[in-house]
Each structure stands twice: as structure tokens, then as C-alpha cells.
Specification:
Blueprint (H helix, E strand, L loop, with lengths): L2 E5 L3 H10 L4 E5 L2 H11 L3 E5 L10 H13 L4 E6 L4 H10 L3 E4 L4 H31 L7 H13 L6 E4 L6 H10 L8 E5 L5 H9 L16 H4 L4 E5 L6 H13 L1 E2 L8 E2 L3 E6 L3 H6 L5 H7 L2 E4 L9 H16 L6 E2 L1 H9 L5 H15 L4 E2 L1 H4 L15 H19 L4 H8 L3 H10 L3 H5 L5
Parallel strand pairs: 1-2, 1-3, 3-4, 4-5, 6-11, 6-12, 7-8, 8-11, 13-14
Antiparallel strand pairs: 9-10
The chain binds adenosine-5'-triphosphate.
Protein name: Nitrogen assimilation regulatory protein
GO molecular function: ATP binding; sequence-specific DNA binding
InterPro entries: AAA+_ATPase, AAA_lid_NorR, CheY-like_superfamily, Homeodomain-like_sf, HTH_Fis, P-loop_NTPase, PEP-CTERM_resp_reg, Sig_transdc_resp-reg_receiver
């Protein structure tokens, strides 16, 4: 039987609920101390809380304080506050603090039963969803349900357990390393090491010895023989991030390694066989670099048997909210701050912002919002997004373009808010369905048409 905690100092009401709510195992408390003790003992999914409690039952101070304590101890509990007819203001304050619903006295069993039933249903649904999310994130670390990400995930599933070389293309912070790790995790090499190296962050003269290792005395400071990243990755996967920044002489050495599958350490003569799979990533336009002879064509073809484009966050519509929710849950757990969700204005701001730093930027914004927030729902102001600048340097000053960009963005946002239902999208935008169809065609929003959920 589901457990319900009733916090009320009126013994008459306690009795009424005990005999009236037979579908639940009802436990009682009459003040803060007993309420918290019962909460810890029974961990009820739903609580009813009378706001007027001792020491001063004539106002809501103690009730609101208990509410805050309950939500910080068990953040997913649904608290229904009960208050006198004349004190709607306190009830609204409680909702702002994170109460699930409020109920004005006198208590009528049929009404409170419906509210309770809905609260239990919701809490069970939320727990199921969290469990599903956890299972899903164990299965894959790539969070997202946009068309582009689903397609990319399918490709990962197909190529992970092969030796095909994969080149990941995408802006900084789009998740290239996450994809590379997933390729490794889903391959037969999963038990072996995953070694990542960023070719752009290591000075040119050190990159060779970092990758290939060196023999003692190979250069000043080489006091002992040291294996490089390639050797460390033996039996596993080597992730070469920012491969476009690899200097040309090293590209030649890399190509030789990929053809012969043996390395020579810097200053060494011995050929050492190494068995690795190489996954590369870059934000650069490699074909253009090839055309300008800044990147070797033969190496490019060897590294990019499959090219996987990872789109920027702003083109992944509802993924932004999905990822935001994921980061919110994990940071509120990690930082022990009971954030219950995103307020509507925060969702709107997240969808409007252009995310030049992609998922890494989103992650940072949510983390600081969780730290800064002093209410249960994160608001737009907690996110501190600079919406006026459009989030990036590519500002458009042509009036027609500005209007068209704004229109197609508004359509996408409305579509997300309308849960992918076109009739509702049209309603939200204040236009007819045919007009919406015409605009979708005009702006080439074909993904919206194909994702339409007819309810
Ligand atoms: N689909 C995703 N689901 C969950 N977290 C993600 C996803 N994509 C990226 N992240 C997170 O976003 C951050 C940036 O991702 P990552 O380092 O993989 O990006 P990147 O494209 O390799 O960036 P850079 O090119 O700057 O190295 C990481 O903390 C990562 O865990």
C-alpha cells in the first residue's frame, strides 16, 4: 500500500482522514519534530501539510518552514498544502517554494482523494522516468532525441564493433569525445584502454614524443625511456582530438604507423607492434585543408572511412531541454541542492539562446544556476544568458533575414513547446494550420513535418 504522511495538529482531521482514506497506509504528525521523524522513517511519496501549525497556528510560518525542510530532505515528494479559506496567499507562497498543490479547508474526502490519486500517479511516473533515464544513460552516454543525434547513434551502433576509422566533425563542445568514448565502449576493445590526446593543446615539438614515446637520451631531458600515448592505447582505442592541428611532418609518421601498425619511439630503432583503433575529431574543414596542402590527403582518407557530423546544440531543438534536465538532476544530486526543475521562462530562454559553446556551455550554465538558485525551480535569471547578443558573433543586420530567422526560430520553439503537435503549434503561434504548413515549406523545416505527432 502507498504511504501517505498527514501533518496536521487537528486530531479531528487526522481521524477523518484515517477512516476516509482507506486506499493508503496513512501515518500522522502534528508538529515539525514529529513530521521530520515520520518523514525519515517512512519516506512517503505524498504528504499533506496543514500550514497553520504550532507554535503559532494562526499563521503559515511554521508550515512553510516544514515544507522547505521536507523538500530538501526528499525532493521528489509531492506535498499538498492545506490551508484556511482566507489564506490563499500562503498557499501560493507554498507553491512557489515547490509544493505540488494546495487545498483550501474544509476538507472534503472526494476532492482530496482525487488530488492524492493524481499526486501518487505523478510521483510514480516521475520515478519510472528517472529509472528509465538511468538505464538509458548506462546504455549510452549520448543524451539526445533529435533526429540528427538518433541518426548519429545508429551509425555508432553499426560501426562500433568494427575496425573502420571514424572521423568526428563538430564544433567545440558538441560531444565529439563523448561519441569517441561510446565507440570504444561498444567495441570488442571495451576492456582495453581509451586514451585521448588533443593535438592542438600540445606544443608541436612535444607532440611527437607524447604520441610515439622516446628512448632514454633521445633529447636533453629524456632521462628514462618512456612509452607514448599510442603504446599506452595498445589493445584499446586512441582518440586523436583536433587532428587538423597535427603538423605535417608528424602526419607522415602517423600515416606510416597506420599502414604498418608498428612504431619507433623517438631516438629508438626497435619496431614495436601496437594494436589500436584510431578515432579522430576536428572542428576544422579538412577537405579544404587538403586542397590547401595543409593536411595530407592519404592520411585524411585513412582516418575518415566513416565521417560523423555532430550538429551544434542550437540545431538539436528539444535536446537542449533534455540535456538541461539531465545536468540539473546530476548537479542537484552532486551539490546536494534540491532543484525540482526548470521554470517556464528558463525553458524559453534555453530554447532561444544560440549556445556558441554548445553542450559544454549548457553544462556550465546549469551548474552555476544550481549553485546560485535560491528557489526550487530554476528561473531564466538564474541561467544568466546573454540573449540580446544572440549568443554568437554571427549577427544579422539585413531586416528580411532577421525577420525570417526570427520566424523560423519561433516555429521551432513553438513546435517543441507543443510536444511536436502541428495543430497546437499553429495555435501557439496564432496562425492557421495551412499558414504554418506554408511557413514550414518556405523555411525548409522538413524535420518538423516528419516529426509531427498527431494527437
Ligand atoms: N550527448 C551528450 N549527452 C550528455 N553529455 C554530453 C553530450 N555531449 C556532450 N556532453 C558533455 O558536454 C561536454 C563537452 O563534450 P565533449 O568534450 O565530448 O565535446 P567536444 O566536441 O569533444 O569538445 P572539444 O572539441 O572542445 O574537445 C562534456 O562534459 C560531455 O560530457
Amino acid at each position: 500500500m502507498e504511504k501517505l504522511l498527514v501533518i496536521d495538529d487537528d486530531l479531528g482531521i487526522q481521524k477523518q482522514l484515517k477512516w476516509g482514506l482507506t486506499d493508503y497506509e496513512t501515518v500522522f504528525a502534528q508538529d515539525r519534530q514529529s513530521a521530520i521523524a515520520q518523514l525519515r522513517l517512512h519516506e512517503p511519496k505524498v504528504v499533506t501539510l496543514d500550514l497553520g501549525l504550532p507554535p503559532d497556528a494562526s499563521n503559515a510560518t511554521e508550515g512553510l518552514a516544514i515544507l522547505e525542510q521536507i523538500l530538501s530532505l526528499l525532493p521528489d515528494t509531492k506535498v499538498i498544502v492545506v490551508t484556511g479559506n482566507s489564506d490563499q496567499e500562503s498557499a501560493l507562497k507554498a507553491i512557489a517554494l515547490g509544493a505540488y498543490d494546495y487545498y483550501l479547508k474544509p476538507i472534503e474526502l472526494p476532492t482530496i482523494s482525487v488530488i492524492l490519486e493524481r499526486a501518487f500517479y505523478l510521483v510514480n511516473l516521475e520515478r519510472e522516468l528517472t529509472a528509465l533515464e538511468q538505464r538509458h544513460s548506462q546504455d549510452s552516454d549520448i543524451i539526445g532525441s533529435s533526429e540528427a543525434i538518433l541518426k548519429a547513434r545508429q551509425i555508432v551502433d553499426k560501426v562500433a564493433d568494427t575496425e573502420i576509422s571514424v572521423l568526428l566533425l563538430g564544433q567545440s563542445g558538441t560531444g565529439k569525445e563523448v561519441f569517441a568514448r561510446t565507440l570504444h565502449k561498444k567495441s570488442a576493445r571495451a576492456e582495453g584502454p581509451f586514451i585521448a590526446i588533443n593535438c592542438a593543446s600540445i606544443p608541436e615539438n612535444l607532440l611527437e614524443s607524447e604520441l610515439f614515446g622516446y628512448e632514454k637520451g633521445a633529447f636533453t631531458g629524456a632521462v628514462k625511456t618512456t612509452a607514448g600515448k599510442i603504446e599506452h592505447a595498445d589493445g584499446g582505442t586512441l582518440f586523436l582530438d583536433e587532428i587538423g592541428d597535427m603538423p605535417l611532418p608528424l602526419q607522415a609518421k602517423m600515416l606510416r604507423f597506420l599502414q604498418e601498425r608498428t612504431i619507433e619511439r623517438v631516438g629508438g630503432r626497435k619496431e614495436i607492434p601496437v594494436d589500436i583503433r584510431v578515432v579522430c575529431a576536428t572542428h576544422r574543414d579538412i577537405p579544404e585543408m587538403v586542397a590547401n596542402e595543409a593536411f595530407r590527403e592519404d592520411l585524411y582518407y585513412r582516418l575518415s572511412e566513416i565521417t560523423l557530423k555532430i550538429p551544434p546544440l542550437k540545431d538539436r531543438d528539444k535536446d537542449t531541454l533534455l540535456l538541461a534536465k539531465h545536468f540539473l538532476n546530476s548537479y542537484s544530486r552532486q551539490l546536494n541542492k534540491p532543484c525540482r526543475g526548470l521554470a517556464d521562462d528558463a525553458k524559453q530562454a534555453l530554447l532561444e539562446y544560440a549556445w556558441p559553446g554548445n553542450i559544454r556551455e549548457l553544462q556550465n550554465k546549469i551548474k552555476s544556476a544550481v549553485v546560485m538558485a535560491d528557489k526550487p525551480f530554476i528561473g531564466a535569471d538564474d541561467l544568466m544568458l546573454n540573449l540580446s547578443g544572440g549568443g554568437g558573433p554571427a549577427e544579422v543586420f539585413n531586416l528580411r533575414q532577421v525577420r525570417e530567422t526570427a520566424e523560423s526560430n519561433a516555429i521551432r520553439r513553438a513546435f517543441v513547446q507543443a510536444d511536436s503537435n502541428l495543430s497546437r503549434t499553429a495555435e501557439l503561434l496564432g496562425i492557421t494550420r495551412p499558414t504554418l504548413y506554408a511557413l514550414i515549406d518556405k523555411y525548409g523545416l522538413s524535420d518538423i513535418k516528419s516529426n509531427n505527432q498527431v494527437n
